[in-house]
């Protein structure tokens, strides 16, 4: 089994006919995936064993398990995208389909700002009390 490099340009591989297989569950796949990937969850993965197949999941564990099962089933051209979705999605310029983003840094900054404002208002209120 070949290991895909950390930064895998998956779309060109899929464009040339490689199968880009996302082994995550459907709900996770719908929250974002690499363009041209197909979603066949780990529990239900049966595909043409002669086609070049690149397997990924959220972090790499399910993809590695899926690749091992595929090899046992006679798949001959399997690669695991080691960094999987977490690595791919961390590249801000990487294209994604149906992706849901949460800017945790902005959310945290807003929460800290609100906490500071509440503390200021509580301090002022305490000064007004006799």
Question: Can you describe what's shown?
Answer:
The protein has helices at residues 10-15, 26-30, 61-72, 84-89, 104-128; strands at residues 2-4, 19-22, 38-39, 53-56, 78-81. It is an alpha/beta fold and 130 residues long. It contains 5 helices and 5 strands; from the N terminus they run βαβαββαβαα. A 5-stranded parallel beta sheet has the order 1-5-4-2-3. The model has no long low-confidence stretch (mean pLDDT 79).
Quick take:
With 130 residues, the protein is an alpha/beta fold.
Descriptors:
130 residues; alpha/beta; 5-stranded parallel beta sheet; 42% helix; 13% strand
One letter per element, helices H and strands E, the order comes to EHEHEEHEHH
Biggest pleated-sheet summary: 5 strands, parallel
Number of helical segments? 5
The helical percent reads 40-55%
The span between the termini is: 75 Å
Count all strands and give the number. Answer: 5
Instruction: Supply Rg.
Output: 22 Å
- The pLDDT mean sits at 79
């Amino acid at each position: 089994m070949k290991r895909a490099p950390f930064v895998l340009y998956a779309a060109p591989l899929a464009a040339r006919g490689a199968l880009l297989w996302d082994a995550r569950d459907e709900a996770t796949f719908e929250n974002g995936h690499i363009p041209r990937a197909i979603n066949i969850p780990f529990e239900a993965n049966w595909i043409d064993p002669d086609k070049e197949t690149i397997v990924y999941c959220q972090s790499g564990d399910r993809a590695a398990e899926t690749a091992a099962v595929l090899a046992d089933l006679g798949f001959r051209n399997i690669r695991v995208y080691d960094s999987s979705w977490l690595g791919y999605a961390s590249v801000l310029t990487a294209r994604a389909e149906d992706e849901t983003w949460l800017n945790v840094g902005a959310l945290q900054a807003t929460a800290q700002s609100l906490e500071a404002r509440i503390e200021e208002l509580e301090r002022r209120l305490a000064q007004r009390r006799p």
